[in-house]
Design a protein that fits this description.
Among the domains are: about 80 residues; about 90 residues, no CATH class. Helices cover about 10% and strands about 50% of the residues. Strands 1, 2, 3, 4, 5 and 6 form a six-stranded antiparallel β-sheet that branches. It has a four-stranded antiparallel β-sheet with strand order 7-10-13-12, with no helix packed on it. The radius of gyration is 26 Å and the shape is elongated.
């Protein structure tokens, strides 16, 4: 069997470590490594797992995650370390329970094509109304469309931390990963169906001490099988993938100018990450 050729090198200038004066020790840390020779994310994580130290400053390695891809086979992998003691765990038990809230509202969007043309009518003596291929308000073969209401479904997760546990790294992740979608299933929602759209961070009173409360907001878009007029099959897409259709104007056998769907494309337009790693939330709830 051929020997795999790869290297894993620590990027020392990117080390990020938290120190707790009350505990007299380091409580969390993140190191970054450059992995070369990996053809995909899975290989990059496999190589990092084999080489990255399982402990750092008496903290245990908790997880490895892809940070970014520098080139074809060169990756940056982050290693997260944590230290926990019994009194931290006991304090966690006294934190308020996490809560989840769902809400639904609507917004307006413009559509160019209908799902189905249910009727065509014409004035006396004008002949049969021509087909427009589902196009709405067609002018010179170009659909102008119409505005419709669509639902916006939002999930809000409220989670609590001891201030010393809500580290600078975690705070920065909460603030900087807006606009990311879930790369894996999260809280029962399939990959790429949750868009992280914002968070509110505040310190609140809990008995005789302060705790950190974070309200996370996610917008939900379920997977869909999209019907395209004139096609005998549906196009499947993940929730936050973008589907666009290439319509061409053509003149039919009856000399009618109308749009026709020729090609359809599904695009990934949002970056993805594992919310459990980046936002400090359990994937199972």
């Amino acid at each position: 069997m051929a020997t795999e050729n790869y290297t894993v090198t620590q990027l020392y200038e990117n080390a990020d470590v938290e120190y707790s004066p009350s505990l007299g020790r380091h409580t969390s840390g993140k190191l970054k490594y450059k992995v070369t020779g990996a053809e995909n994310e899975e290989k990059a994580l496999e190589y990092a797992t084999a080489k990255v130290s399982k402990s750092y400053l008496k903290m245990d390695l908790k997880r490895l995650a892809i940070d970014n891809r520098l080139s074809g086979n060169v990756w940056v992998v982050s290693a997260s370390y944590e230290y926990k003691v019994n009194r931290i765990n006991e304090y966690n038990k006294s934190l308020p329970q996490e809560t989840t809230k769902y809400s639904m509202s609507t917004t307006t969007t413009n559509i160019k094509f209908s799902r189905l043309t249910v009727g065509r009518y014409s004035a006396a003596g004008s002949g049969k109304a021509p087909s427009r291929g589902g196009g709405i308000n067609v002018v010179d073969g170009v659909p102008q469309g119409c505005d419709i209401k669509i639902p916006v479904i939002t999930m809000t997760i409220t989670h609590y931390w001891k201030p010393s546990q809500f580290t600078t790294t975690l705070r920065n992740n909460v603030l900087l990963y807006g606009g990311y979608i879930n790369s894996e299933e999260f809280r029962g929602f399939p990959a790429r169906s949750l868009l992280y759209v914002g968070a509110d961070i505040q310190e609140v009173d809990s008995g005789d001490r302060k705790i950190t409360q974070v309200d996370f907001q996610f917008e939900i878009s379920p997977p869909d099988d999209v019907e395209i007029q004139g096609w005998d099959y549906k196009v499947s897409k993940a929730g936050w993938e973008y589907l666009w259709v290439d319509y061409r104007r053509h003149i039919s056998d009856k000399n009618e100018l109308s749009p026709s769907a020729k090609y359809a494309y599904v695009e990934r337009v949002y970056p993805a990450c594992k919310f459990e790693d980046r936002l400090g939330l359990s994937a199972k709830g």
